Amino acid sequence: MTKKTFKMDIWFAITLGLLLLYLVFLLFPMGNLFRMAFYDGESFTLKYFQTFFTKKYYTMTIANSFKVSTAATIVSLIVGVTMGYLYSVYEIKLAKTVRMCIVLATMSAPFVGAYAWILLMGRNGAFTVFLQNLFPQVEIPSIYGFGGILLVFTTQLFPLVFLYITGAMSKMDNSLMEASVNMGCSGVNRFFKVIVPLIMPSILASGLLVFIRALSDFGTPLLLGEGYRTFPVTLYNEFVGEVSQNKGFASAIGIVAIAITCAIYIVQNIATVKTSFAMSALNPVPKKKPKGLAAFLVHFYIYLVTGISILPQVYVTYCSFRNTSGMLYIDGYSLQSYREMFGKLHRSVVNTIKIPVISLAFILVFAVLIAYISVRRRNALTSSVDMISMIPYIIPGTVVGIAMVTSFNKPPLILTATTTIMVISLVIRRLPYTIRASVATLQQIPLSIEEAAISLGASKLKTFARITIPMMSSGIIAGAILSWVTLVTELSTAIFLYTARTQTLTVAIYTQIVRGHYGVASAMATLLTAITIVSMILFNIVSPEGDITL
Amino acid sequence: MSTITIKNALKKYGDITVIEGLNLEIKDGELFTLLGPSGCGKTTLLRMIAGFNTIEGGDFYFNDERINDKDPAKRNIGMVFQNYAVFPHLTVRKNVAFGLNNRKLDKKTVTEETDRFLRMMKIDEYADRLPQNLSGGQQQRVALARALAVKPDVLLMDEPLSNLDAKLRLEMRQAIRNIQRDLGITTVYVTHDQEEAMSISDTIAVMDHGVIQHLGAPKEIYQRPANLFVSNFIGRSNTLAGRMENGSLILEGSRFTHEFWVNIPDGPVKAAIRPEEFLISAEVQTGIPGTVTDTIYLGMDTHYMVRLESGEEVLVIQESTLADNYRMGERVWLTLNERKINIFTEDGNRNYLRG
Asked: What was the ipTM of the complex prediction?
């Protein structure tokens, strides 16, 4: 009897409110997406799916996406695991800066990397021209297509592996290392027989994360793909393409995308459950000073990888100060690009601050509320809110964009082309991450603290406001900064929803690149990088030991 | 101040009944302990009184007021938790003042009362520190001051000492006892540590499987436990199977008699003999014969493990003497302090020596 009756209190009302919001702004658009995919205005149909799966033009894109994502995952794992391992066991000079650069490489806007590589290695790229002059008879490998996408994915995604591996290594007790040496297992042997199995859960988790990111990445293949068409780009083209604007077909592709990410998510869950075990280090592995040739090789490798992955940002920053004339860079340096950015494009700068700030406020409030009801007030109703809130976790950003724009373009709710719809989409997309982080923080707070407050006469709301929230605050603030960075650099949803009035920096960079205005695009990208750096410094101050989870 | 009356309490988790038909009366101003092994339902019962667990049946009263459906925030209870539950983001002073502020008292009263309890618990010198800079014992003092400052009708303590080290535990035990007596506040204390319960309580309820096995004063519970479970849980006890014949106890082939036993019916029984209720001797060769298998000298007492001829091993504790200890392998005879030992029904559910 007690299980089925809900206690009528303030939390019950909040739960109902949240459920209602999710019904309107998530379940309705997703339902609408399914309706468009399976219903052609008259009857139930599978023709969109039929078209998709029978035409090589479309099936190719899935094959391409899988190919390039798999390759990116393998290379990222090799680079990320070796980097993470060396970073954890050796004293590296400038270790903190190296780590900062690596984090920065993954936190940049999705296609700034791609764009920078075009500037460097594109047809007129600085590096290409340099090499061409040096070796006139040799054909310089093209940055466009498979190879280029792979390069950009790897430099952007290996940091995820790096962060997971350094996290796992810090939880490994030194006695395990000593014990294995004691039993005659050291060096490379120990790496493969002891260390790799111990950090396997992190390797798998980060590998799958890299795979999902690569698969759903939209900006990089859009700029670098050219003939090499991937799935998210096709989705975008089918939707906004001026020739064949077919919402039903785009929705069907969206549903295929959801099915794929769902499958990967399930695989990930099974893999983590099977390989996970708890470790905690009393004595973490001490870093040792590498000697002689080893010292040189270790530093060379770490600096080289870090250098390559941070190169795009550095080069874009450099370009942002160059003079431009029309579409070309010309000699001389000035703040011309910045003037232009703050001049006619100042709106996108304002939007890049305004939209994420508003979104972040909503995200924090909702995340804390949902975390609280799902941890402290577990019942059928709160569990369903918790479950619904996780749905966006497995829906690619592009699909969220399509669902939103097609669902709120007619009465009773017309939201297209408003700031509101951008905020709603960002809130829905980012909430799952922030909720998980808040849940983790909340679970570390013993229930008895809240009971103590209540037994001392504080009301439920007062206990929440005066005791629970302050105790969660450090975790919330750290999470908020990470969320902020992802919101600022978001592209895949915004690109479906923006208008001239609501365009953000990421969208603006994309449109400027497409139009060939490289100077302004560089200035904008530099501004994004600066925002990211400042945020990361802030994060380090707020939570010096904090894990960076993206 | 308050009496607590519990009638027919029922607690279920889903379909599992944890407590059923439990009745209890706690007198005004007494320190009442719920004692039992983990999982016996003692904390569940405490949390039902506090209002943090739902009550599936029965009636709970503070004095004459039924509190079943009363908001926990309005029951006017003070609660002390095992993990202290001190608010980590508030200073010691603010922790103690928290409850007073919720009572909407004027500022002056809040300050005065806070100071009074800070001094009483000897934590006034840490008043402006954050709890993370205090030791476990100091944190528990903050928790106690915080709970007492609101002048609760009832003080509830859930294993308040079990996170402290042995020395602090003794010290805090005494502090709790003294302050409880001074303030005369009705207190319900939960613990699994029988020594702690014995030393602190006016009344103990020994619980197992959601049922109160024995309710009484510490001395009574130790000397005349209601059943074999209580006998074994409180202190140490050797249980030997025996037989009654015409008011005599036949144990391991030896016959013992005492006037207390004349009315016990003939048949198999269980005898519970505490280690100090044996008398060991190698010279006087009467009683139960056995062989010493281990000797542990602990200063004040000496412990002997003795294997009886049935193969049963018993623990015997004697005050240490100047003479040599009995050595391993030495043959000894055990007699009983008949007035003190307890005789239970064969199933161990009833003590023949309780009226």
From this structure: 0.79
